[in-house]
């Protein structure tokens, strides 16, 4: 083996994070990884998480026993309701089976593994171009083929809707289509409701299989139900589908790896029985890979999701995060416009969620890193949460400079 294992490149995103940490320049700015920061560029433990943590740590019955293979039942059932809606007929009719996973990555992986083993119409997953870098390797690792559908239009810096629809129309029947439920990573560009309806219509007509990734519920609009609209619409339309759900961003539980995978069957007479069979197979996959999921993050999220007052506080915390990001979008755009930086910058406020796809080229990204110590991914994506009232002018000036060079 020694001779045949080639050296792999460092993960671009975590490599960027390490480079930022090493940088000793005082005014350095981290716009790399998608993790929320407060106005002092510090990680933010959500007040509701602190509260939940306090309650859990005082629980005299707390122990470190194994969770069930499918995870904490109160957590998975609350997660279903959060994403599908508390009154979802799919839940009431027993058409949903859910497993707690190692955050969104684990949920994508479990879904991919399941498709790879049990889904026969196709072994190809279509990913948006561009998409979260990890989607590609997660799907390849479970031996699914990947293909792309156009998503982002470089000229409008918005959705390439025609390109997307035409690729979906051409995809072979049965193909798996990975969709970002909201706050698309990396572009910050989402389809409108009308566009989602057309996407669903084409997918129905072409018999395509939806796999939703939802890592930013509450971050796009600040409203949890609104951010789940696309998924709920597809379920309403009777699709059988998969959902990978992450609590990393909306609870700030990044390192605790709290997430959930859901299979939702369509409304057929045998749906309940099929859901049971599928749940049983998912449990075997889970057991062989992680045995059972980690408890701490799920305990926190579960406590909040199942308590009316804590839930309301969580919504407040979410609005604080999404509100601060919106303020930073406005501040960055207006500063660039004030500087008369060549180009148009309205896309910064038009894009939503945690990221903005600035349109900076790889060359400009590397230059701004070398000259101004502003760190962003090579595709020109910036994590808006890295901006604050102390550094936004500095970043705008650095962008202005690199664009003029
Ligand atoms: C990101 O895209 O920055 C985040 O989703 C972090 C990650 O794991 O890639």
From TrEMBL:
<keyword id="KW-0663">Pyridoxal phosphate</keyword>
<dbReference type="InterPro" id="IPR015422">
    <property type="entry name" value="PyrdxlP-dep_Trfase_small"/>
</dbReference>
<comment type="similarity">
    <text>Belongs to the class-I pyridoxal-phosphate-dependent aminotransferase family.</text>
</comment>
<keyword id="KW-0808">Transferase</keyword>
<comment type="subunit">
    <text>Homodimer.</text>
</comment>
<dbReference type="GO" id="GO:0006532">
    <property type="term" value="P:aspartate biosynthetic process"/>
</dbReference>
<dbReference type="Pfam" id="PF00155">
    <property type="entry name" value="Aminotran_1_2"/>
</dbReference>
<dbReference type="GO" id="GO:0030170">
    <property type="term" value="F:pyridoxal phosphate binding"/>
</dbReference>
<dbReference type="GO" id="GO:0004069">
    <property type="term" value="F:L-aspartate:2-oxoglutarate aminotransferase activity"/>
</dbReference>
<dbReference type="GO" id="GO:0005829">
    <property type="term" value="C:cytosol"/>
</dbReference>
<dbReference type="InterPro" id="IPR004839">
    <property type="entry name" value="Aminotransferase_I/II_large"/>
</dbReference>
<dbReference type="InterPro" id="IPR015421">
    <property type="entry name" value="PyrdxlP-dep_Trfase_major"/>
</dbReference>
<feature type="domain" description="Aminotransferase class I/classII large">
    <location>
        <begin position="27"/>
        <end position="399"/>
    </location>
</feature>
<protein>
    <recommendedName>
        <fullName>Aspartate aminotransferase</fullName>
        <ecNumber>2.6.1.1</ecNumber>
    </recommendedName>
</protein>
<keyword id="KW-0032">Aminotransferase</keyword>
<dbReference type="InterPro" id="IPR004838">
    <property type="entry name" value="NHTrfase_class1_PyrdxlP-BS"/>
</dbReference>
<dbReference type="InterPro" id="IPR000796">
    <property type="entry name" value="Asp_trans"/>
</dbReference>
<dbReference type="InterPro" id="IPR015424">
    <property type="entry name" value="PyrdxlP-dep_Trfase"/>
</dbReference>
């Amino acid at each position: 083996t020694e001779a045949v294992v080639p050296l792999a490149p460092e993960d671009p995103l975590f490599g960027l994070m390490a480079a930022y940490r090493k940088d000793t320049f005082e005014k350095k700015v981290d716009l790399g990884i998608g993790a929320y920061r407060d106005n002092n560029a510090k990680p933010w433990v959500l007040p509701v998480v602190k509260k939940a943590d306090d309650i859990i740590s005082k629980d005299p019955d707390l122990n470190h026993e194994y969770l069930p293979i499918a995870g904490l039942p109160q957590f998975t059932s609350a997660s279903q309701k959060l994403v599908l809606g508390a009154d979802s007929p799919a839940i009431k009719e027993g058409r949903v089976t859910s497993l707690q996973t190692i955050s969104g990555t684990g949920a994508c992986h479990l879904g991919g593994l399941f498709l790879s083993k049990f889904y026969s119409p196709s072994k190809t997953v279509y990913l948006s171009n561009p998409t979260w870098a990890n989607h590609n390797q997660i799907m390849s690792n479970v031996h699914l083929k990947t293909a792309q559908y156009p998503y982002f239009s470089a000229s409008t810096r918005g959705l390439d809707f025609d390109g997307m629809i035409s690729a979906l129309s051409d995809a072979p029947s049965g193909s798996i289509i990975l969709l970002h439920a909201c706050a698309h990573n990396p572009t910050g560009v989402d389809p409108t409701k009308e566009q989602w309806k057309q996407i669903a219509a084409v997918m129905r007509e072409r018999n395509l299989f939806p796999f939703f990734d939802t890592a930013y519920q509450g971050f796009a609009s600040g409203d949890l139900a609104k951010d789940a609209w696309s998924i709920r619409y597809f379920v309403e339309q009777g699709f059988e589908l998969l959902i990978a759900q992450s609590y990393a961003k909306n609870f700030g539980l990044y390192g605790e790896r709290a997430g959930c995978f859901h299979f939702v069957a369509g409304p057929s007479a045998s749906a309940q029985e099929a859901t049971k069979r599928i749940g049983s197979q998912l449990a075997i996959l889970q057991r062989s890979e992680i045995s059972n999921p980690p408890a701490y993050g799920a305990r926190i999220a579960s406590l909040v999701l199942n308590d009316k007052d804590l839930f309301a506080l969580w919504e407040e915390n979410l609005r604080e995060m999404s509100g601060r990001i919106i303020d930073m979008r406005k501040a960055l755009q207006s500063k660039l416009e004030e500087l008369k930086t060549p180009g148009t910058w309205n896309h910064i406020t038009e894009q939503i969620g945690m990221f903005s796809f600035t349109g900076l080229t790889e060359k400009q990204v590397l230059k701004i890193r070398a000259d101004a110590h502003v760190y962003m991914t090579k595709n020109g994506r910036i994590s808006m949460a890295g901006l604050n009232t102390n550094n936004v002018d500095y970043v705008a000036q650095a962008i202005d400079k690199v664009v003029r060079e």
